[in-house]
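Can anyone check this?
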Amino acid sequence: MGTKREPTARQMRLAVELRRLREAADLSAREAAALLGVNSVQISQIESGVSGVSEKRLRRLAANYSCSDSELVDALAVMATDRTRGWWEEYRGHLPTPFLDLAELEHHATSLREAQFLYIPGPLQTEDYARAVYAYRVPELPDEELELRVQHRMRRKVTLEGPAPKPYEVVIHEAALRIKVSNRAASRAQLSRVLQLSEADHITVRVIPFDLEDFAGAASAMTYAAGAVPRLDTVVRDGPHGAAFIDSEAQLGSFRTLFRKVESVSLDPERSRDFIHRLAKEL
């Protein structure tokens, strides 16, 4: 018998939201199970992502929890019944799970917002840039894994350049644009790539220049993925031990405010393109 696969971040998010609905209704797992006509173990398995849940059962749970937010319930029903096995599944067992979870999150997002201060955002990176970033890791990655990571990052471009591209807003600090993670030619190609993508109708690129005064937001780097409803938004932040997926309502509110603050001090899209164009000419 094969080993049961661990739940994805999306499956875990569904489980967490169902637990939050139960707790908001002030019901114990035992009480929720009794209302549904199952045992409490089944509720625990659903809320830990170990077991899936049918749409019919999910809607019964929501009714038992007196959830009147029909848009949220509909969105959760889609999460419960979606059987998408996207391109990222090819990398399962070959790359760390957060790589797959991020690709899955981007695939299902309705829009994406990003703020980066030291690196060009992943979806905008060229192959040479991505390879230089991964090659700098300590301990060094085996050649095979390094190439898999580069390949995975390049395939994430489908979010912006595929048949159904997502609206994408990004704020990039001048530091990220100037740091040469590879050679001069690769840096020039990377800036040209950002400029090219910034011309797309669904992509908005803004720049924060070095000479901006009173800017203390360099710790605000994030990827903000919008869900089907605001409650299902997710923030991704890189940390010392890998990517962290943040989804509590209070934290989401804080990150929305942070992004607005960062965006408000950045150059408008036209001035940002001119700024990047000047930097590229300097190389």
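Reply from J.R.: I decoded it. Residues 127 and 150 are 7 Å apart (CA to CA).
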